[in-house]
Amino acid sequence: MLARVTVYWHREGGSGDYAAWNGTPLRKGHCAVDPKKIPYGSKVVFPDAECVAVDSGPAVVNRKAARSCGRKGVERNAIVIDRFFDTKQNALAWVKAHPYFMTVRILVWRQDT
Asked: In this structure, are residues 66 and 79 in contact, taking their beta carbons and an 8 Å threshold?
């Protein structure tokens, strides 16, 4: 699945220390997703790491980053995943070393009913 990957860290843009949906403390290896497309608890496999979907936000849901910087239709229609880092320095270093758009694999977590 093609994704526009953005980053965030503790206290960036008003984010706190806790994920909004269940109060889980945010840590390296977490990411924010649109829960209508990627259920919470699913694993998002990046080329360099695997993250767990535990958070969301309006910019992720409305895909602002993909719509604003995508050059082709496929990029403008990509999902947005916001990857959490423990520090601003680590987040910005990751952004510098990776492309804005990348293919990720989603391992969907399904709750048994």
From this structure: yes
Nearest 5°: phi and psi at 47?
Answer: -60, -30
Statement: residue 19 has pLDDT above 70: no
Q: Cα separations (Å) of 49 from 15, 20, 22, 111?
A: 22, 23, 23, 24
Distance from C-alpha of 59 to C-alpha of 66, rounded to nearest angstrom: 10
Q: Tell me, what amino acid is at 56? A: S
Using a 10 angstrom Cβ sphere, with 0-12 exposed, 13-18 middle and 19 or more buried, the burial of residue 31 is: buried
Residue 44 near residue 55 (C-beta atoms within 8 A): no
Task: Give burial (CB, 10 Å; 0-12/13-18/19+) of 100.
Answer: middle
pLDDT per position as a tens digit, 70-90: 999 999 999 999 999 999 999
pTM tops 0.90, yes or no: no
Residue 8: exposed, middle, or buried by beta-carbon count in 10 A (0-12, 13-18, 19+)? buried
